[in-house]
What we know:
Layout: H1 2-25, E1 40-45, H2 50-67, E2 70-75, H3 82-93, E3 99-102, H4 111-119, E4 124-127, E5 138-141, H5 144-158, E6 162-170, H6 174-187, E7 193-202, H7 206-219, E8 224-227, H8 230-242, E9 250-254, H9 258-265, E10 271-274, H10 277-292, E11 300-302, E12 306-308, H11 316-322
Parallel strand pairs: 1-2, 1-3, 3-4, 4-5, 5-11, 6-7, 6-8, 8-9, 9-10
Antiparallel strand pairs: 10-12
Helix pairs in contact: 2-10, 5-6, 7-8
Amino acid sequence: xxxIKGKVISGLLLIIAVLLLxxxxxxxxxxxxxxxxxxxxxxxxxxxxxxxxxxxxxxAQAAVKEFGITLHVSAGADEGDIEGQLQSAMQxxxxxxxxxxxxANDDAAFEPFLKEAAKRNIPVIAMDSLLTSGKTVSYVxxxxxxxxxxxxxxxxxxxxxxxxxxxxxYSKGGINGVLRERGIRDAVEEYEGxxxxxxxxxxxxxxxxxxxxxxxxxxxxVDGILALNTETTIGAAHELKRRQVGNxxxxxxxxxxPELLELLQENQLQSLIVQNPFSMGYLSVKHALAAxxxxxxxxxxxxxxxxxxxxxxxxxxxxxxxxxxxx
Length: 327
């Protein structure tokens, strides 16, 4: 019965994804609602890898279709290539874009870029990662500090308020990872019976995260795991599945992907904290265009987050988060 249920759910996921993707790629013959001829936006992504950044790009392209602007996209080979992304960002200034949307790999490293953009009067929208090292006209993304608190409270709920909890973070997490972990450490003070047994780094490859989690479980008793991005969550879930303890050691992770949703169905993790990357890409470009037009834009556009479980993953409102290609 479990295998049949898994196959049915997997089939439904595939059908939904295909239908939504078709709608996004073939939306009809509607002309752009507004023409903003001559405006060029530069979109700089942390990486081109993964469903998350693909959905961000699709959201940005939806804004292109709606507003009739020109969009140039650049992305690093991986999230750890801070220097490469910085060089790409600096080079983009020479093309004289009207505005820039930046999903930065690091905060401090982009100080010279933000100063140069300000000197040239090119507005910069910080997307996904909050930047504090220089001037940006707006931040579009999740409150990662509060997301960390939410993750800790969810694992506390899963464990009945007591137990030993490990944090698996990503070595190239930038300011997002820092804020999420800070939120976790502040929120744990609310629970006398809950203890953090350490924070371990792993690379962006989920296979390396499997080994990191294996090492944690070999060394100490763990009742729950908090994994702070897609790869760490996949790696932790795979290791729990390999040890056949996915229903005993609770796992709360971040982001979504087809593989994570499969693991959620299999009860190898209990919850995912998810935001809408499609909407984030769309709104970032929309506000970048407004800034380029000299309009006032909000200093902060906070993306909502949702706690996804096996029970609520098929709710209609959650489909927009899990398959965010049609808004």
